[in-house]
Design goal:
By secondary structure, the chain is α+β, with helices and mostly antiparallel strands. The protein has helices at 6-16, 20-24, 56-63, 118-122, 225-228, 346-361, 381-391, 422-436, 449-452, 469-475, 478-495; strands spanning 29-32, 35-36, 46-48, 51-55, 66-70, 75-80, 83-88, 93-96, 99-102, 108-110, 113-117, 127-132, 137-142, 179-187, 190-195, 202-206, 211-217, 219-221, 236-239, 247-257, 260-268, 272-278, 283-290, 322-328, 367-371, 395-402, 412-416, 440-445, 458-465.
């Protein structure tokens, strides 16, 4: 609750300090604990009828509150810890933990943003506020309730030798109870956050615009994080996102210092469902799914509570052969992961593997094998799905190489998404994983588009890590590729009973 009042004091300060209101309209920078805050251009605070009104998005995103907007009832709910606040657009009465409170001004809508009375929601919260006339910026500091009399004395203007206003990160070691965030990556609607220890994510969705917010309690960026990924002096960074149908951007930052929390935000092009979990190997996973998709879990059960039927019914095409679709992930402008050597691309490995598997399977007269791509071509994910659906394929196998923010990550994984694919995943992994000779990371649930939207049994294979120097070299070894291709082919033929 403590930080919830920083915006109140900020805007009170704007009107209390001569000339500040004018400065704010001409690009004044705002810092919280020496970290610059970002306020969207379309989400500006306004003074209406003598009351300062602030966009709800700014409050919720910067302070970590869970905000719900019910359009039909025109009700805003703000919730965190033991506090529950409800406001109604156009009403001067709000409720706080069930008690009615009168407002100075009623909440209202402006463009795509809800404006709420700042004085009401921040009244009991306190921050130390400083005006830095040299940089024309507002400096906000949280009070340290754990030392002395609870007062926090901000650093004097100009005492930073670099003059950059950079953030001093929290102590980042096991004894401090802070877990290192080592890397952030995104591929095929899956966000992967690699950490140095187990972290339980706190995730929630927000609207205006749509996004998924993931908070990682008791975490901080690893000392070498910025060597491998974008991270500025204020501990803000982002991923380069291209050719994603559902996601416009991924950004991350040290959200707060006490307690130390790293926040990752997935900016969406439209509303989506998500599943957030720790996969048991020091990785936080956030899988995205379309709103009309059933949000399953690794141990899915059917709607009636029964276990999925693992028996396989195998239709055949008009010539009596069973159809196998092999999908070489990425392609052309979409390189996929890049090897740690910066010389090898995932798209090249995936295609080489797919061609080898095709060559083996074509020797079986009972199979018809189709590749989603047989050269360096780019296909949208939905096009890959369409290939398999139009052919009424019996099975779908997507081949990939993995990557992580940590060069230590290694091993082989088999992913499935739908319950009907679990049996196929079990058989595939039995042959595929031993063939690699790499660390067996097991069979996992994965919310990847191509294995979610297909209707036949489908798996996605992550052969190894291009971000690991040793495994990168192994993945591009010809003998290794031949051995793994045979393992993949053996799994397919056993599952389809065409050995």
């Amino acid at each position: 609750m403590k930080k919830f009042g920083f915006l109140l004091l900020l805007f009170v300060f704007m009107w209390a300090v001569p000339g500040y209101g004018h400065a704010a309209s001409s690009g004044t920078q705002i810092y919280l604990d020496d970290q610059q805050l970002s306020v969207p251009s379309g989400a500006k605070a306004q003074v209406i009828g003598g009351s300062t009104m602030v966009p709800l998005r700014v409050i919720s995103e910067n302070l970590g509150y869970d905000v719900t907007w019910k359009q039909q009832a025109r009700t805003i709910t703000i919730e965190k810890d033991s506090t529950l606040i409800r406001m109604i657009i156009g009403s001067k009465t709000a409720t706080v933990n069930g008690s009615d409170i009168s407002l100075d001004a009623s909440p209202l809508l402006r463009s795509n943003y809800a404006l709420v009375p700042l004085r009401f929601i921040g009244e009991q919260m306190g921050l130390d506020v400083k005006w830095d006339s040299s940089s024309k910026s507002v400096k906000l500091y949280t009070r340290n309730s754990g030392s002395g009399n609870g007062e926090f004395t901000p650093p004097k203007s100009g005492n930073n030798s670099t003059g950059t206003g950079s953030v001093t990160a929290p102590t980042n070691n096991a004894s401090s109870g802070v877990t290192q965030v080592q890397g952030v990556s995104f591929s095929q609607n899956r966000l992967t956050i690699t950490t140095a220890g187990a972290v339980k994510p706190k995730a929630f969705t927000m609207t205006g615009p749509d996004r998924v917010v993931v908070d990682l309690p008791a975490t901080a960026f690893a000392d070498n994080f910025g060597d491998q990924q974008k991270l500025d002096s204020n501990l803000n960074g982002s991923l380069d996102i291209e050719n994603e149908a559902d996601v416009s951007g991924i950004r991350y930052a040290l959200f707060q210092k006490e307690p130390s929390t790293v926040r990752v935000v997935i900016d969406l092009k439209h509303a989506m469902n998500y599943t957030a979990y720790n996969d048991g190997s020091n990785r936080v996973i956030v899988d995205l799914a379309s709103k009309d998709s059933v949000n399953t879990t690794p141990d899915a059960t059917l709607p009636d509570g029964s276990e999925p039927d693992d028996t396989q019914t195998s239709p055949v095409n008009s010539n009596g052969k069973k159809v196998v679709v092999i999908d070489a992930g990425h392609g052309a402008k979409d390189s996929g992961a890049v090897g740690i050597s910066r010389k090898n691309y995932e798209k090249t490995f995936n295609l080489a593997m797919a061609l080898k598997v095709e060559s083996i399977l074509k020797q079986n007269p009972k199979l018809e094998v189709v590749l989603t791509r047989s050269d360096d071509t780019f296909l949208e994910l939905k096009q890959r799905v369409k290939v398999a659906e139009n052919l009424k394929a019996n099975v779908f196998v997507s081949i990939h190489a993995n990557s992580s923010g940590s060069s230590a990550s290694n091993g082989t994984e088999t992913y499935y998404q739908r319950s009907a694919s679990k049996a196929f995943a079990n058989v595939m992994h039995k042959y595929f994983a031993p063939a690699t000779g790499l660390t067996d990371r097991g069979i996992r649930y994965g919310n990847f588009h191509v294995i979610r939207e297909t209707t036949m049994p489908a798996v996605l294979l992550e052969v190894g890590y291009l971000s690991n120097a040793k495994e990168e070299a192994t993945l591009f070894d010809e003998d290794f590729q031949n051995r793994v291709a045979q393992g993949i082919a053996d799994g397919i033929t056993e599952y389809l009973d065409v050995k």
